[in-house]
Every structure is written in C-alpha cells, then in structure tokens.
Amino acid sequence: VLENQDLQDSIKPQKVEFHSLNFNTTLHWQPGWAREARDALYFVQYKVYGQSTWQNKEECWGISSHVCDLTHETSDIQEPYYSRVRAALAGVYSSWSLSCRFTPWRETVIGPPMITVAPSNKSITVKLQAPRSPYRRKRGSTIPMTNYYDLLYQVFIINNLLDEQHRVLVYEGKEKVIEIQDLRPGVSYCIVAKMYMPMLDHSSAYSSRQCTVL
Fold it and tell me: At CA 189, angle to CA 144 and CA 153, rounded to 5?
C-alpha cells in the first residue's frame, strides 16, 4: 500500500493553470516529479464556480498530453471556472490537482491588432483589424474582441533614420483606417500597433512591424 501511496504522490500533476489569449483557453499542467510520470495518462474535469458536480472533459480523458483545450467549456466569459487534473499509471490514480479560479473576461490576454500599411507621397494609410475571439455569430463569422471590451487602437510610428527603438504614439481611438500625414519622402518608417483597454488599463503586446519607404 505504501508503494502505491508513493506512486500516487509522485505522479500527481503539478502547476495546473489556465492560459487564455482572446478567449482561446487551454489548461496546462506539468507531470509529477517521478521519472515514470512521463508515461502517465491524464484526466481533466471542469466546473463553474459554485456548482457541486464536476464535468468530465471527454477529449481530455486518458490523454498523454499536458494541455487540454477548454475554450468551448469556458464560453460564458463572465463566469468563474475551476478545472482539475489527475494522473494514472500502472493502475494507480493520483489525487486531483486543482487550478486557481479563472474568469475569462478578467483574465484572458488580448492579442495585438493586425495592421496593413499603404504608403503614398507624404503619408501612410494604416488599416487596423482587432483580434478575433473563437466564438461565432449565427452566420458563422468569428466575433472580434471589440465586441466584448471597450478597446482602443494605439498606433506608433518608428522613424528608422532617428532611432529604431523610439516609438511615437500617433493615434489612439476606434477608427479602423487612419492616415499618418506630413512624413518625409525617401525615409523608411515602421508602424506598430496595440490594443488598449482603458477600463482595466491593460495593453496588448505590439503587433508585428510593418515597414515602408515613402
């Protein structure tokens, strides 16, 4: 019995955490500390905070992976959720490892916008597209993150002649197409953008750079 107890403890999953980007939500964990633990299989359950019964996540029942997609199960984004994982090896089951409480609306990370740039003589037109959630409208298109939060675009310009690290904020607002004017012909400029959420004072990461020469 003692050996079984040791095995139970040594294969118990560690660090059970939700990771979420634009409401694409996965549960991650690390295997137990025993060397054999890498051969363990894992079983995932989830529930809304306050519910008494746990639900099995069928696609993550007896898996060897250390990640489980719970995007669909956490689609009520204002609700707080819990998840838990147990491991099994050689007929022995570990106890459950519990995640922290996770509320998608509060804790998902908002990604950067997509940008495209079109240069003209002395200006650059920037088109901005908010990141999209995995959730779909009735017609099938995915719902942009701007539907869930009051988000602003922040657009920065980098004048490569001056300093490649120096970003100047040239626009903040909700317009999806903006024009940056009074630029110098023949100069290389790069544009980056991010999403900003005033209410929670959160910013996304920067978008990838789009560079152009006028």
Answer: 25
